[in-house]
Task: inverse folding
């Protein structure tokens, strides 16, 4: 791990004491059914060249997370901590490029950087990476946005830097475009509108 990631882990501490949403309040609902192959976001391709382990798909891992109270507490804690720890900056403000995906190594980043770091830490906590898929949506402003979909036995749940709530996908208000495949280093369509070229908003 890089220095800033280690610092964030230290900041997280334990999940104990985090006032979490109630696992019992989550409905048990079906997830989104992928439609077909989709073209990856260009910045994701570059990210995977640099961070191959973050993009690798282990088909021996479960395709869904079995939610327990302990796992739920970990998910909610990491979501909240990273939302607070990372300074929101667009890639243009931060790096003078239109779109770049990374793990917020210097403590700043935009939407996808938050979600990639959350996935990294959740995987370190023992959750199956295969059940945590980077996802492209159209947000409430009509802009491209990246969230992290957790495929669970209670349905598809969304981690988002715009809220500390962990929401079922259909309660986000977003149009779901595509996400990483669970079967290969590739992307699949979710049947939404035309895909944005970037996900470079805060």
Result:
């Amino acid at each position: 791990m890089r220095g800033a990631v280690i610092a964030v882990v230290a900041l997280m501490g334990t999940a104990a004491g985090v006032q979490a949403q109630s696992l019992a309040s989550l409905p048990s609902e079906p997830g989104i059914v992928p439609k077909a192959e989709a073209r990856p976001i260009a910045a994701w391709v570059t990210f995977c060249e640099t961070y191959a382990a973050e993009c690798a798909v282990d088909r021996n891992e479960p395709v869904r997370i079995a939610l327990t109270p302990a796992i739920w507490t970990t998910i909610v804690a990491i979501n909240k901590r990273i939302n607070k720890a990372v300074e929101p900056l667009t890639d243009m403000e931060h790096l003078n490029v239109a779109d770049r995906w990374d793990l917020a190594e210097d403590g700043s980043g935009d939407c996808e950087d938050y979600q990639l770091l959350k996935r990294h830490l959740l995987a370190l906590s023992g959750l199956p990476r295969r059940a945590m898929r980077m996802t492209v949506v159209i947000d409430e402003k009509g802009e491209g946005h990246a969230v992290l979909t957790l495929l669970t036995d209670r349905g598809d749940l969304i981690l988002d830097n715009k809220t500390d709530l962990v929401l079922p996908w259909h309660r986000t208000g977003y149009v779901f475009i595509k996400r990483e495949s669970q079967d290969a280093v590739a992307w699949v369509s979710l049947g939404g509108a035309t895909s944005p070229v970037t996900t470079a908003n805060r």
